[in-house]
Specification:
By secondary structure, the protein is of the alpha+beta class. The chain is built from 15 helices and 24 strands. Strand 3 and strand 4 form a beta hairpin. The longest helix has 19 residues. The N terminus is likely disordered.
Length: 524
């Protein structure tokens, strides 16, 4: 069905953080916001790159999103796609062609226009310059990209060689945000140095990798999304991001007014934050939940029965209750419950006796130390992970105990985030542990399809491969949800993801901070 979204001129708004820490700005209850001041924000991990197109981790996106706008936005309440840089759009009958009409008068921070040529330059650079190695998410959203046609200065048509129904939602992500030619002309490594030029409400003022980042208000910003909470320029003069990996240090800094807001506020941090007059703001992430992604090329996890046995061995509610607290949820599917196409799967439950039965039937027998064996091989595997989420190690230590109860030895392999990404790319792992955030079920394709990231390093699974591609062929929401329900079941049945818990963003905010908000993918 052909669709035309009517042109809707929306007045611009500020960034999602709309009041500052420090003495310069405050917002009394019921009062009017006052402009000025600097928000001091402590990240739990260093961003991996200043380039939104190459961003992947939440901490990277928290920073990079502030400097870049996207063609569309996604309403965090309804999930609806709304105008941003694009005033309207047209999707052809088979979802192979998307035509965007851009707002007039929008500029990048270097003064060059945001126009159809810049849409073409950005998408071309993601596919042809960055590629999947550097822009994993962006390149996956542009799978089958034929090219962008400049219809006229403010109209761009993006064409694909096959149906790509997920693409409209993808245009709301920071990975497909638009940057100026001065940025898109650069090679990948030079786009990570903090001089990226976007059209967003903030601009990079300084970028010290692994130390600190400052973004400053873009004067004259006036083209924000309809989802934004107010019109015009940002209230803040600047946001100062510092990197503070230690949870206790972040919390102490917030309580002592050294920073105004922090990432990854853990349950044990809440009393200290609240005693200082602050609060912890939470929201669940859509996308894939945290879980194990097995490497099918490794002997132990290449066994389907082993992968199947891991699913009922995990007490997910215990993980939440013991480590994370009531703001988190146990995983109940291969998509998180906040994802629009989520369905609960009955098999994601705690039945350790069922796990033992599967392993017994597969010939894995208990060894002298309690670890099962088969043909001289121990039922042991390692999991490679980073502290990209502060609770990862504590969760996995408890999982280690749970798996030992059914005769499985889990070895924890904690590495830095850059090393985790490099190991994933090279295939040097038994299993990885993580999640992927996106407010669309297509995250299953980008993570697990043969032509996607294929994090399992698997071969063909015809039934799964079919549904992952078929969900791209329809723009009917009910039909697509039904297809993605099949995909969720097949990802579980084949052991591509062993889900544990759903990620929640937990932001500690001091008493002077107002209107911290989350977008549709649970990022600031």
């Amino acid at each position: 069905m052909r669709r035309w979204v009517p042109v809707a001129l929306a007045a611009a708004v500020t960034t999602v953080v709309s009041a500052c820490g420090g003495a310069n700005v405050s917002q009394a209850d019921g009062g009017e916001p006052q402009a000025g001041g600097t928000l001091r924000y402590a990240l739990s991990q260093a961003p991996t790159c200043s380039d939104p197109a190459q961003s992947g981790t939440n901490q990277t996106i928290y920073v990079a999103r502030q400097i870049v706008d996207s063609l569309t936005d996604q309403d965090p309440v309804t999930g609806a796609i709304t105008p941003w840089l694009a005033r309207g759009w047209n999707v052809n009958d088979d979802a192979t062609s998307f035509t965007f009409e851009l707002k007039d008068g929008v500029t990048f921070s270097d003064g060059t226009p945001v126009d159809a040529e810049s849409v073409k330059a950005n998408f071309d650079s993601i596919v042809n310059t960055l590629g999947a190695a550097k822009a994993q998410l962006g390149a996956s959203y542009l799978a089958g990209y034929v090219g962008t046609t400049v219809v006229d200065p403010l109209t761009a048509r993006v064409d694909f060689d096959a149906p790509n129904a997920q693409f409209l939602q993808a245009t709301s992500t920071p990975q497909l945000g638009l940057q100026a030619k001065a940025t898109t002309d650069k090679p990948a490594d030079q786009r990570c140095l903090g001089d990226n030029i976007g059209s967003g409400p903030f601009v990079y003022a300084s970028y010290q990798q692994d130390r600190a980042i400052t973004v400053e208000k873009r004067s004259g910003y006036d083209w924000g999304s309809e989802v934004f909470s107010h019109d015009g320029e940002a209230y803040l003069d600047a946001i100062e991001f510092t990197i503070v990996p230690e949870s206790g240090v972040r919390t102490g800094s917030l309580a002592s007014d050294q920073v105004d807001a922090i990432s990854d506020a853990l349950p044990q941090d809440a009393p200290q934050i609240e005693a200082a007059g602050g609060r912890v703001l939470t929201t669940s992430n859509p996308g894939t939940p945290f879980g194990f992604t097995p490497n099918f090329e490794r002997p132990v996890l290449g066994d389907l029965e082993v992968r199947r046995a891991l699913i009922p061995a995990l007490n997910r509610q215990e993980l939440v209750d013991t480590v994370l607290g009531p703001d988190f949820r146990p995983a109940t599917s291969t998509l998180a419950s906040k994802t629009p196409q989520y369905v609960a799967l009955d098999e994601v439950t705690y039945e350790p006796e069922r796990s033992r039965e599967i392993l017994d039937a597969a010939g894995w027998v208990e060894g002298p130390d309690g670890v099962r064996e088969k043909d001289g091989r121990r039922l042991s595997f390692s999991v490679t992970f980073s502290a990209v989420f502060a609770g990862n190690q504590a969760v996995l230590e408890l999982v280690q105990q749970q798996l030992a109860e059914v005769g499985v030895e889990l070895v924890l392999d904690l590495v830095s985030t850059p090393e985790a990404l490099a190991r994933q790319a090279s295939g040097d792992y038994d299993a990885t542990y993580g999640n992927s955030t996106r407010a669309d079920g297509d995250i299953l394709r980008t993570s697990y399809a043969l032509e996607g990231r294929n994090n399992n390093r698997r071969g063909p699974i015809p039934e799964l491969d079919d549904v992952l591609q078929r969900q791209l062929t329809t723009t009917d929401e009910a039909e697509r949800k039904a297809i993605l329900a099949e995909a969720q079941q097949l990802v579980l049945d084949n052991g591509l993801l062993i889900p544990t818990i759903e990620l929640s963003q937990a932001i500690g905010a001091g008493p002077k901070v107002h209107d911290l908000e989350f977008e549709a993918s649970a990022r600031l």
